[in-house]
Amino acid sequence: MARTNGKSEIETAALDAQHELPAAEETDEPSASREVQEPVRAERDSELAKLKAERDAAIDRLARLQAEFENARKRATRDQQEFREYALADAVKTLLPTLDSFERALQVGEAEKSEFRSGVELIYKQLQDGLAKLGLRPIPAKDEPFDPRLHQAVEMVDTDEVEDQQVLGELQRGYKLKDRLLRPAMVKVARNSKR
Questions:
Q1: Which of 47, 88, 131, 146 is the most exposed place for a label (fewest CB within 10 A)?
Q2: Domains of the chain (ranges plus CATH)?
C-alpha cells in the first residue's frame, strides 16, 4: 500500500454494492421532477403576483402623492396671487377718509371757482387716478336699485316720486378693490308703498 497523509485508502472494489442507490431510470417525461417543480413554481408564481400587487400599490400611492403635491403647489400659487392682489386693501382703506374729506370740501362753495378750489380739485383728481391704477373703483349708488351686497341703507324715505327700493342719495361713497368690496355705500333708500 502506498502512503497517503496518514489516511487509509479505500479501495473501490471494497464498497458495499447493496447500499448503493439504484441508477435513475431514464424516461421521456420525468414525472418525479415535475411533481417537485410544480409546488416550487406555484410558490414562485404566488410570490411574483404578491410582488406585482405591492409594486402596483406603490405606483398608485406615488401617483396620488404626486397629484396631492401638484394640488398643494397650485393652491399655494393661488394663495400668493390673492395675497398680492389684496395686500393693498388695508392701505387703501386708510386713504378712504381722505377721499371723503376731499369730496366734502369740493361740495362747499360751488358758486365761485377760486385758485384754492382748482388746486383741491387737481389733488383730488390725482389721488383718484392713483387709486384707480391700484384697482380701486367707486360703487355707483344714486338712482340705482338698492343692492344689500353693495349698499348699506342708513335711512328709508317715504316718497311717491320714485320706484320702491331705489337709492335716493349717497351719504358716503362705497368702494371696491378689483372685485372685492372694501366698504359699502351708505345710502338713503326710497320706500314707496303705491308701486
A1: 47
A2: 89-191 (2.30.22.10)
